[in-house]
Specification:
An eight-stranded antiparallel β-barrel has the order 1-2-3-4-5-8-9-10. It is built from four helices and ten strands, in the order H-H-E-E-E-E-E-E-E-H-E-E-H-E. 16% of the residues lie in helices and 32% in strands. It has a domain at 60-176.
Length: 178
């Protein structure tokens, strides 16, 4: 008896939710009644995939292996230099965050020190917007020497990269024309 009640309830619910024949019949409107401006617009065409951005060739490349693996590309932009850092955090566990990428632009002074401010970018490993950076971007100092560079990042990596990421320290020259 109970099974019969459930079946009856299901049928009544289905009948109550369905449309009446008058509600489901198509409505034929004359063509003149629909203004052209109100007609639905055709679906937009699928966007064509954008070609990947061509990366500028670095004029110098520097790498370090301690305390963690990191590299820096030096790219000339006229009177200014762009420094592009890619660093790996320490591998402590499966919860270790991903690699870090930061870009900064600035001039080089007579003492071979590049004073570069963090800038917005869309990189290989990270995207950083002006809103992320805020009104006071960190300054990354790069001291250029005969065997490599020494970087001081003003805590930029700790602010914009995963826990434990670090770009401070000495990087050896790996090949360049600079």
């Amino acid at each position: 008896m109970r099974n019969m009640s459930i079946a009856a309830l299901v049928l009544l619910t289905a009948a109550a939710c369905s449309q009446s024949p008058a509600e489901s019949a198509p409505v034929d409107a004359p063509a003149a009644a629909v203004p052209i401006e109100a007609a639905p617009a055709p679906a937009p065409a699928q966007p064509t995939p954008k070609a990947p951005k061509k990366r500028a060739e670095p004029i110098a490349v520097f790498e370090r292996s301690e305390p963690t693996r990191a590299s820096m590309d030096l790219i000339s932009e006229g009177e200014l230099l762009r420094v592009v850092f890619r660093a790996a955090p320490p591998r402590n566990s499966a919860l270790t965050p991903g690699d870090c990428e930061l870009q900064a632009v600035g001039p080089q002074d007579a003492d071979d020190v590049i004073t570069a401010r963090l800038v917005p970018f869309d990189g290989d490993q990270n995207v950083l917007t002006a809103a992320n950076i805020g009104p006071n971007p960190p300054i990354i100092q790069v001291r250029v020497g005969p065997e490599g560079i020494f970087v001081t990042d003003s805590d930029a990596a700790s602010r914009f990269c995963g826990l434990g990421s670090d770009i401070d320290g000495f990087y050896r020259r790996t090949g360049d024309d600079y």
